[in-house]
Design goal:
The strands form 2 sheets. A 3-stranded mixed sheet has the order 1-2-3, with helices on one face. A 3-stranded mixed sheet has the order 4-5-6, covered by helices on one side. The chain is α/β, with parallel strands linked by helices. The protein is elongated, with a radius of gyration of 29 Å. Helix 1 runs antiparallel to helix 2, helix 1 packs antiparallel against helix 4 and helix 3 runs antiparallel to helix 6. The chain has 10 helices and 6 strands, in the order αααααααββαβαββαβ.
Length: about 375
């Protein structure tokens, strides 16, 4: 079963279960005059709505590429996840307002054994639903499903706390409903804010996990003739939809035909192993056959590495005929003064080789 079908099927299951739970909880909450149970029912309805948005978002994201969107519509999934987070946040705020009203104007709940049993069953159902949805989300890399699964497991804890409040009232006669509702609301609000921050981060563009980038560069380095892989950049167009570019280092005496062959091998190997399309392969020429250049490389690398926060040096090339030195380096984002460090490195290399024009490039640390 393909990814879209799995997400849609899981979403439908979530809708059905949450609507049933919301219906039962709403009836029980009204009969028991319990604000906590009623809020729990509202939360189940918001979960059902979230599943609906997940399905709609997945369907829209699966639309074929067109003239206006040549890379497809996969990023709609991130937008749908953001909408779900906003719904959860709104539900939490509305619930908090209602809870505060109940604290100001309290009412006495009316629990029964039936109430306790129904809430207990709801806890068990939510645990199973949350585990199922979360696992499905992880299997198809769906942020919406993973968020829904976590939210369902979270709801199980909330329902369990409601159950505890009911038992406390039945045994001790102490009504903590409104206060518990306020606590539940704060937890929902916090969860909504966290989900919203996560999805907005993805829309903004965040670093791809280092495991994937390292594996891709490892695959690239396995191609015969490749002496190093650098500057890997992945462009995300939705879950599991990546286009990428990478620089490789090759021997300076390679012909265009040989480089072309290596490029095609890299593209095929990365697509086969990781499902990532390499659109561009940049070339760094490695001139190691000259002893004088090797000495220059050693000296310059020593200068650059002597500075704090330098993570990597690559793309070194010396054009003796035109008196040019080219070098790329990467610094950690933790560095306080990138421009100042750049100026120091430049001046130190220039002082060592004043007769050469220095082309020094500070690369962005986009992958580990």
């Amino acid at each position: 079963m393909d990814r879209e079908k799995i997400i849609v099927r899981t979403g439908i299951i979530g809708i059905v279960v949450n609507i049933l739970l919301a219906s039962f909880k709403a009836v029980v909450g009204l009969l028991a005059n319990s604000i906590a149970i009623i809020l729990d029912a509202v939360n189940n309805l918001s979960d059902a709505l979230s599943s609906t948005i997940t399905i709609i978002g997945t369907k829209l994201a699966g639309k074929k590429a067109d003239k206006e969107h040549p890379m497809g519509h996969g990023r709609i999934e991130y937008i749908s996840a953001a909408v779900i987070a906003i719904i959860i946040l709104y539900a939490g705020i509305a619930s908090f307002i209602e809870s505060v009203k109940k604290i100001i104007s309290p009412s006495v709940p009316n629990y029964s054994i039936v109430t306790i049993v129904i809430v207990a069953v709801a806890v068990v159902v939510k645990i199973f639903l949350g585990t199922y949805v979360k696992k499905k989300g992880e299997s198809v890399n769906s942020d919406s499903l993973k968020a829904s699964g976590k939210d369902a497991l979270f709801d199980a804890i909330i329902s369990a706390s409601t159950l505890i409040a009911a038992i406390v009232f039945m045994t001790a006669g102490v009504a903590i409903e409104a206060y518990l509702g306020a606590v539940i609301s704060v937890i929902i609000i916090k969860s909504g804010i966290g989900m919203l921050k996560e999805t907005l981060s993805q829309i903004l563009g965040e670093r791809v996990n280092s495991e994937l980038t390292n594996e891709i560069k490892k695959t690239v380095r396995t191609i015969e003739g490749v002496k190093g892989a650098y500057d890997l950049i992945l462009h995300n167009y939705g879950p599991e939809r990546y286009l990428a570019s990478v620089h490789i280092e090759v021997d300076e005496h390679m012909t265009a035909a040989e480089i072309d062959s290596i490029t095609r091998k890299i593209q095929h190997a990365v697509l086969e192993a990781h499902g990532v399309i390499i659109t561009t392969v940049g070339i760094y020429a490695n001139n190691t056959s000259d002893d004088e250049i090797n000495k220059m490389r050693s000296d310059i690398f020593h200068i650059v590495r002597s500075h704090d926060n330098v993570l990597q040096i690559h793309g070194f090339f010396v054009d003796k005929e035109n008196k040019k030195i080219s070098l790329d380096y990467i610094m950690d984002f933790a560095a306080d003064d990138l421009k100042g460090e750049y100026a120091k490195i430049y001046d130190e290399i220039k002082a060592k080789y004043p007769e050469y024009e220095l082309i020094l490039k500070l690369d962005v640390n986009v992958s580990d």
